[in-house]
Amino acid sequence: MRLALRWLASIAIFCLILYHVSPRTAIDLDDIPISPVDKSAAPDPAPDAKPLLEEERPRGSPRPSDIGAFWKKWSQAMYDARPRVFAISIKGQATTLPPNTDGPRKPYRDLVRNPEADLELMRKAHAKFVEELENIRADEGIFKGRGVVMVGGGEYFGPAIISIHMLRRTGSTLPVEVFVPNDEEYEVDVCEGYLPKLNAKCVVLAHVLSQSDAELGISHYQLKAPSLLFSSFEEVLLLDSDSIPVVDPDEAVFSQEPYLSDGLIVWPDYWAATESPQFWTIAGFPDFPSGLPATSSETGQLVVNKKTHLAPLLLATYYNVFGKEHYYPLLSQGALGQGDKETFMAAAVVLNTTYYRVKTSVASLGRHDGFKQKATAMVQHLPYDDQAGGPDKKVTVRPAFLHSNTPKMNAGHLVDEGDLLGVDGSTRLRLLGSKAEQEKHFGFDVESSIWDLLIQTGCELADIIKEWKHRDRLCERLEEHHDQLFGEHRSGMGQVWEQKRANLRTQ
Ligand SMILES: *[C@@H]1O[C@H](CO)[C@@H](O)[C@H](O)[C@H]1NC(C)=O
Questions:
Q1: Could you tell me which residues belong to the region Disordered (predicted)?
Q2: Which label site among 154, 210, 220, 256 has the fewest CB atoms less than 10 Å from its CB?
Q3: How confident is the model at residue 12 (pLDDT cuts 50, 70, 90)?
């Protein structure tokens, strides 16, 4: 009894805190009115009116008549099937450890503290949404072609631009859509002046989200699933702004097995999966599913065909929309990196659709700063080789993506935040291993290639990307690093661009 009281009291205090921190999350979910969203921030392209002409459409809007209507319908379905439970509460935190088995996944300890009744309410809501997904056929045909989707804006523009340039260096001509959260992050000079030269453009996510009447409160780190969903492409490679392709994705992934048969490709993380077994109960499974990989997943890159896999993508979006309070804790139980990472594969398993999970372990590249070894990047492998090969068959499984996340390839941050220097403050560090190692892994010195682009884009955009504008001598400092590390002398790009910018200013 005392325990129960203390439990209640802590819930009450928790609610109070939440109410003050974030009023939106503290509302009793049963009473949420279906309120119109605040549309003052984003111009409303009137969903029911005739489609706007190109020149009438707000900057960065996709075709409002179809994708907007699509979201209006599915966001309502998500809202109607919202989990009517305050939040999932986790006891402690799952640990991030490498899996201790080569075999299939074993259930992790259940850390969920909610009563049975909560889980039953969530199961009902989940079943309602899955039932709704049976009506999906009518939505086919609004997406077209193959392309790449990234989430950009603010500090993510810099690395995204490096990744897009590297994509072009693989020979790929796939169009790119860079999703930015809202109008404030739509930088005209970047979105209209620079990206179109790379066959890339910005799309403002808020313009699609505002087509919905349901208040779902989607925030920044939940944007990947909606971006995938709202991109105009039918076949999509989702890339984090810091994930760099080292093969032509069109030729090496989209045009090959296992993509052609399976339609959804997911890559592994280092760590063992830690979802609560209760997740599977909520999803309507009688038992823990067999045959899942022991590791969790990593969404620095993801490939999906929306023609065959729109239902799992919508279900993954449902898990993300109700991620923060419900499905993220269920799927990771507080483990490091909790977020959208497990939602895509979970949705495919739940709906029993095909998917391919790359088996080759993610490799790690790092640097030694004179004091300790630090991880820099994750290397993810080519699904085609992965399926054909594997350790026993002696096929070399080639790398496909370099997820360079610590640090990200943001020219401004690189020169200002000390990651390029050893602890002595003067030794210049290679971030991705020696030249010989990189040539062995990738067939070329990938870091040198990235540095060409860091200088080129850092110098050209030093006064253009908002986040770089007030950094001192960005271009020159990039060149200094390059010259000292790679030992070649650059041909004074800094001066060339300084002159160009001076000319622009005087015009
Ligand atoms: C899942 O799909 C496979 C292959 O299509 C089928 O054999 C199996 O019965 C399905 N499982 C369930 C639970 O529906």
A1: 38-65
A2: 220
A3: very low
| Domain of 235, in residue numbers | 22-357
Judge whether 388 lies within some domain: no
457 and 318 together in one domain: no
pLDDT for 18-60, tens place per residue?
Answer: 334 333 333 333 333 333 333 333 343 443 434 444 445 667 6
CA of residue 389 to ligand 1 center, whole Å: 26
**What is the 352 CA–ligand 1 centroid distance (Å)?**
6
Residue 79 and residue 217 in one domain:
yes
Residues 342 and 414 in one domain: no
pLDDT band for position 405 (50/70/90)? very high
Residue 468: inside a domain, yes or no? yes
Is 461 domain-assigned?
Answer: yes
Instruction: State pLDDT tens for residues 436-479.
Output: 999 999 999 999 999 999 999 999 999 999 999 999 999 999 99
Point out the domain boundary residue: 315, 337, 357.
Answer: 357
Is 395 within a domain? no
Question: How far, in Å, from the CA of 430 to the mean position of ligand 1?
Answer: 49
* C-alpha of residue 473 to centroid of ligand 1, in Å: 60
Residue 308 Cα, ligand 1 centroid: separation in angstroms? Answer: 16
Ligand 1 centre to CA of 83 (Å) is 27
Cβ–Cβ < 8 Å for 269, 296: yes
Among the candidates 333, 357, 381, a domain finishes at 357
Number of domains in the chain: 2
Quick one: 174 and 57 in the same domain? yes
User: Order of strands across the sheet with 295-305?
Assistant: 200-204, 176-180, 146-151, 235-239, 295-305, 264-272, 356-357
pLDDT value at 390 more than 70 = no
Distance 315 CA to ligand 1 centre (A): 18
pLDDT in tens, 99-112: 988 889 999 999 99
Tokens representing 70?
């699509």
Residues 239 and 121 in one domain: yes
Q: Rounded to the nearest whole angstrom, what is the distance from the C-alpha of residue 351 to the centroid of ligand 1?
A: 9
Beta strands 176-180; 356-357: pairing state: unpaired
Count how many Cα atoms sit within 13 Å of the Cα of residue 78 in the half-sphere of its side chain: 26
Shared domain for 187 and 266, answered yes or no, is yes
Cα–ligand 1 centroid distance for 333 (angstroms): 28
Contacts of 146 (CB under 8 A, 6+ apart): 174, 233, 234, 235, 236, 237, 250, 254
Distance 497 CA to ligand 1 centre (A): 60
How far is the centre of ligand 1, averaged over its atoms, from the C-alpha of 285 (Å)? 13
Q: What is the pLDDT of residue 48?
A: 41
Task: Write out the two tokens for 336.
Answer: 């490091």
Contact between 122 and 130 under an 8 Å Cβ cutoff? The reply is no
CA of residue 289 to ligand 1 center, whole Å: 12
